[in-house]
Amino acid sequence: MSNRIMTILYYYCPDQEIYSIDECFLDVTGILNGLTEYVFKMRHSVFKWAGIALSAGIQPSHYLK
Question: Fewer Cβ atoms within 10 Å of its own Cβ: the N or the C terminal residue of the chain?
Fold first, then answer.
């Protein structure tokens, strides 16, 4: 299931750092406008194709929490 979700996310952003079985970081640097909508599309696709709700956060760096 983890591989399926990472594959779906790879379609949206090939530059990903898989952190654990249920967590990854996506580099969306090139997306300047509509980033929130882009993330909603990713979440919708994961739910549609894997049946799992996705939680996402947008930050300038994955070290900031």
Answer: C
